[in-house]
Amino acid sequence: MQLFFKHLLIYFIALFFFLPAQAQRKNTIHTVVIDAGHGGFDPGALGKIAKEKSVNLSIALKLGNMIQRNMQGVRVIYTRDRDNFVELYRRAEIANENKADLFISIHCNANNSHTLKGAETYIMGLHKSEANLNTAKLENASILLESDYQATYNGFDPNSDESYIIFSLNQNSNLDQSTDFAADIQTQMEERVGLNNRGVRQAGFMVLYKTTMPSVLVETGYLSNPVEEKFLVSDKGQEYIASAIYRAFKYYREKLENPVKNMESTGRNEILKKESTQVVRPRYDSTPLMVAKTSPSSLSFRIQIGVSTTDIGVHSSKFASFPAVKMYKHGGMFKYTVGDESTLEGAKRLLIEVKQKGVRDAFIVIFKNNQRISQEESSRILGK
To answer: How far apart are CA 278 and CA 293, in angstroms?
Structure first.
């Protein structure tokens, strides 16, 4: 009973002090905030030869430069562009004050095990494993370096398991978009860089909690793994990782602006070829990237209508307006589709019907042999 009242008290604290304002869904990206985790007297995770704060900043600046160089009309704002300390609450404030459309926080991971490796992307939510909670605790510990942090964060203790109950109350109107972007990042990390794909995860990160736009936190690799640490500190490795996040950003923005145009654009393949000359993209393990030859006649076009970190079931009330919903796993997420069209024209017509039923962020995905093909392969096929 005492525990119940304690949780109830935490609920009211969260309700009045923590919950962000309801965000409006947007159909493009004008402003992106890139957050290099840690900084100044907060080094973050430590490897044998590297400090997390330095790797984060280098990747963040490279990513911002790629966006500014290749995407007109997108404003890039950094929470820090040098080795200085920025409070966690201030990082979210920078995004909110500038009415950002997307927030990307760059980090590196660490673990007592030196064998763990790979990239994982987090979205805001209640942790579902001890590992996720420990990662959130590690990143949230930065608030202990802030003056008067107890008053700033209303008594939140980053080392207390109990404090994290507040994150289950976060009614994130941007969850679908955050999840979709996170999955795109993980796909690029695996397919373009060759990193071990540790999936999209949920945990209570304070830096994400107060943002009012789609937000992700990317753990780009493990400094505690000697091989991966060397890759993370190298200019080549940082360039590959920044390029992977940039490509995910570009693809995500295109889906927001015009999902049909994105899938059928005849010029997109040439754009990708042009960008590939700026950043060489061999896999992390130096294994050549194999490109499958796909016959358009064997393709299936479907409309994606939902995404979740857990399997909510194809008969969920969320999909009550749609018959024959299918589920597939991609990027560590559960994704839901309707339709099974043999032509792009049929998929376009179905997409219009789906949007008329209220799913405004629906878009076309392509399958071959019941497996979703990569976005690059989709572009090659539809650009022919």
So the answer is: 25
Q: Do 114 and 30 share a structural domain? A: yes
Residue in the block written with tokens 């990662």:
135
Domain shared by 134 and 37, yes or no: yes
Total domains in the fold of the chain: 2
Q: Which range, 24-28, 129-133, 156-160, 186-190, is most confident?
A: 186-190
Both 307 and 214 in a single domain?
no
Tokens at residue 253, please?
């923005």
Q: If we measure between CA atoms, which residue out of 34, 170, 36, 172 comes closest to residue 102? A: 34
Buried b (16+ CB within 10 A) or exposed e, 67-86: beeebeebebbbbbeeeeeb
Q: Which residues pair with 76 in a beta bridge?
A: 32
290 and 244 share a domain?
A: no
Query: Distance between CA atoms of 334 and 336, rounded to whole angstroms?
Result: 7
The answer to whether residues 29 and 88 belong to one domain is yes
Give the Cα separation of 112 and 100 in Å (integer). Answer: 36
Listed range (67-76, 274-283, 364-373) with the worst mean pLDDT: 274-283
For residue 22, report the phi and psi dihedrals to the nearest 5 degrees: -65, 130
Confidence band, pLDDT 50/70/90 cuts, at residue 12 = very low
Give the C-alpha distances (Å, rounded to integers) separating 375 from 22, 250, 269, 384: 31, 11, 11, 15
The CATH number assigned to the domain holding 17 equals 3.40.630.40
Q: Model confidence over 261-304: pLDDT tens digits? A: 444 433 333 333 333 323 333 333 323 323 333 344 578 889 88
* 302-327: pLDDT as tens digits: 988 887 767 888 888 788 888 889 99
Same domain, 233 and 292: no
Show the tokens assigned to 152.
């700033």
pTM: 0.60
pLDDT band at 225 (very low <50, low <70, confident <90, very high): very high
